[in-house]
Each structure stands twice: as C-alpha cells, then as structure tokens.
Sequence to fold (377 residues):
Amino acid sequence: MRIGIEAQRIFRKKKHGMDFVAIAMIQCLQQIDKENEYFIFINEQEDQGVIKETKNFKLVPLRQSSYPIWEQIHLPKAIKHYKCDLLHCTSNTAPVNISVPLFVTLHDIIYLEKMDLTQGSWYQRLGNIYRKWNVPIIVNKAKKIFTVSKYEQQRIMNHFGLNEGNVVVTYNGVGNHFKPVSDEEANAITSKYELPDKYILFLGNTDPKKNLINVIKAIWNLKQKGRLSAKLVMPDFGIENLKRILSDIEAQDLLPEIHLTGYIPNIDLPAIYQKAEQFLYPSLRESFGIPILEAMSCGTPVITSKAASMPEVAGDAALLVDPKNYGEISDAIYTLSTDSDLVRQLKSKGFERAPQFSYLQSAKDILQTYKRELNRL
Fold:
C-alpha cells in the first residue's frame, strides 16, 4: 500500500495534544511496518527532530498556506501526485473532495455541541468555524473514523447516526519520556522556569472547556480560608488574560499566588509534573485527557473531572470532582494537601494505570483497519 498521512502541524515549535498523538502514531507505524510505503504530508519544518525519514517513510512538505487552503487544495493534489492508495487525516478535518479512501481521526466533536464558541482566542474560534463546516461532510465520506475513547465514540455515533462499525476506538497513550527523572534533572528544569518550591500544576488555556474560571475560583476559595499551601503554576498563559479574569471575579489579590511560565516544551514536562504537589485537570469536556496519564507516569497525584472521558482514562487512580462546582475542586485540592496516605495511594495506582493505554497497540489497530478496508474494495 501507498499510505498518505496528513500531519500538517507536527513540525511546529509550539505543539499541543493532537500534534503529539500524530507524532506517536507515525513513530509506532515506523516500528511495526517495514513493508508499506508512507508519505507524511507536512507544512512547516521548524522542529525537524520529531520524525525521521526511513526507507519506507517519506516526509513531503507542501506549500505553506492557511490551514483550509493547505488541506482543501494542496493536500488532494499531493495525494494524486504520489499515487496514494488511501489518506489518513489525523486532526479532525479532511479534504471534502478526495479521490482515494479516506480515514479520519476525529478526536472530538465539541465544536458541534451546544457550547459557547464565541469564547476563546480568535484562532480557536476560527478553527471551530472551519471544523463545524468540514466535519459533517467528511464523516459521510470517510471509510472509517478513528476516535480516542469509548465516550467520544458514543458521542460521534449519536450525533451522526452511525453504528459501532463505523467508529473505531484507538486510545491515546503517553510518551516514553514521561517517567520520573533524577532529582538533579528535575531541579535544573524547575529552576529554568523559576518555579516555586511547592506548587499545583494546571495545564489550562483560554479554551472554555479547560474550566479556567472554576479553577481560579477554587484557588481563591482556598486562599480566603487560609488553606492554600502551594502556588498555582500555569504554563502557556498570558498575564493580561489572567489579570482580566481575576478582575472579573474580584480576586486580584490572588495574582501573587499564580506563577506563569509561558509555553513549556514537551520534553521539559516530566520534571514539571514530578515536582508538582498535585496535578489539576478538572476540564468540562475532553475526548481523552492525555495529561492525566502523563502526570500519573511521573508520580503526580491527579484531580480530574467526573465528566466526559476523564473517568474512563483515570479509573480509580485519581480524585474525581464535579468540574462545575468550584467548591468541590477546592475541597479536593485541600484533601490532597493534607492526606499523605491518599497521595501515596494515588501515586501507586497512577503508575499502574498509565501503561494500560498504548500508542503502539493503537497503531497496530490502525494498520489492520487500513488493510481490512482496502481488501474490501
């Protein structure tokens, strides 16, 4: 087979969730498949170390352009030029006119649900508009849809009236470098970001689903009660946005308790997780929640949501809270700060839970699906 894989954003410097999933899938396919030919279609090449060409894996840079132009015009032309037998699009969207069987990884359909799409950055809003147009079209064209949890599989099936055979669950996993590091390395990295001695880690952004407002309210609640024993560390967030949010909820005095780091490269995150007193991930809606497993793999106790896919991922290895109840989030933070036995239990369970999710197994399932569907043609 000549397999085309859309991986437009995997070489950008500031990578996020879907980029790492695509990278892991490609790396695992390189491990298990020495027979078929792969053409990895990419855009910018700022960070060239993440994927290396091999005998049967070729990187194909296409003309740099906006996401829709790249995907709807340049990608279909490249598929024809390289005589691909199929195209796998890895990040929710795909060309609407394609001449070969289409496989799509549909991480989520949040943008099709009744959520407020006027919030978030302009980039996030425009992306949601594009997905809202594109996804209903490509779902009907795709040979198979891959998604990352049973929760999301059910959402997709219900929304589009599909059956289980149309939507295949291929779980995300956790990168091999997410594991405890030496004290020397951990101290060097936390010093690099000038992190406080004791901190709670929260990976949030302006996306409404990350539940930033309730997290801030929970921390403010702890401070008002004299129960806040660690600072809140927030990577990849701007000071002006933070000041505006604190002003909106009349919590300006909380500013000294929050430490902003800017973007943290993925390679530095294990040490950041490891040194954290706890990891806070009470999202309103996630299709999977990779950071839950990352934190567990580094020995960090996790607080996450009772909602969406997060119980499916966390199992009994995390404290689960109602993400809409900031008091419940606050209580969970305080419990972990005072109950050392519970912390030890969660760390132990987390180390056992994380390896149950495997990118390698998902890559094997994806490859088998390619073969099975093309044999049916």
Summary: The chain has two domains: 2-173+358-375, 183-356.
